């Protein structure tokens, strides 16, 4: 896995003999490559090349010079399919490494799970605190409103009381001399 961190993933190990391809267990995790494969190329190299081929097919001068739309679509579909196939192989490689790690060092997997759970708890605790802050703010707003409504003695009574209260807050116009 350290090679994968440096941007290189080693080619997946050959499946042990004796297990049917595609069957259960480690022997069936990685399907055999569809075409001839250069042993010096890694899955990451193939993934990068197929990704670049996807873009190259979209900006190719052949397509700009009046190629049939169906032909363009077929070429792009083939490039994307190859990219997806190599991406699946790469995913299988890392899943296989993860499986090997869980078998060889189960305590490491448990440590990672505990760490993920702690991070999730911290995130949720921060979210709870954020919502509690909002809740306190709105409780204060509601309390302020209820205090204003509890002072009826200071407020004028009658059908025009609201207008009198609202107009009391409006400054008087300045007299021009």
UniProtKB/TrEMBL annotation:
Q: Major place of localization?
A: nucleus
The encoding gene: Med28
Coiled coil segments of this chain: 107-134
Any one of the GO CC terms:
mediator complex
Residues spanning the membrane: none
Q: Which domain of life is it from?
A: Eukaryota
Say which family it is in.
Belongs to the Mediator complex subunit 28 family.
Chain intervals for the UniProt region annotation (Disordered): 1-40
Note the Pfam families from the entry: Med28 (PF11594)
* Protein name, entry field: Mediator of RNA polymerase II transcription subunit 28
For this protein, the record's InterPro entries field holds: Mediator_Med28
Keywords of the record: Activator, Coiled coil, Nucleus, Transcription, Transcription regulation
Q: Which organism is it from?
A: Arenaria interpres (Ruddy turnstone)
Composition bias, Pro residues = 13-36
- Asked whether the keyword Ligase is assigned, the reply is no
* Entry's localization field: Nucleus
Does the record carry Nucleus as a key word? yes
């Amino acid at each position: 896995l350290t090679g994968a961190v440096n941007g290189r993933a080693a080619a997946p190990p050959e499946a042990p003999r004796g297990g049917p391809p595609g069957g259960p267990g480690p022997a069936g995790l990685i399907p055999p490559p569809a075409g001839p494969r250069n042993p010096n190329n890694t899955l990451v190299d193939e993934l990068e090349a197929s990704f670049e081929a996807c873009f190259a097919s979209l900006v190719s001068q052949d397509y700009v010079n009046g190629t049939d739309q169906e032909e363009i679509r077929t070429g792009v579909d083939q490039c994307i399919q190859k990219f997806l196939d190599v991406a699946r192989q790469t995913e299988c490689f890392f899943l296989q490494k993860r499986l090997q790690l869980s078998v060889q060092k189960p305590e490491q997997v448990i440590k990672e799970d505990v760490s993920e759970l702690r991070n999730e708890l911290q995130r949720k605790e921060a979210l709870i605190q954020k919502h509690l802050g909002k809740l306190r703010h709105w409780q204060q707003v509601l309390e302020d409103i209820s205090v204003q409504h509890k002072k009826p003695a200071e407020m004028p009574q009658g059908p025009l009381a609201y207008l009198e209260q609202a107009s009391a807050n409006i400054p008087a116009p300045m007299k021009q001399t």
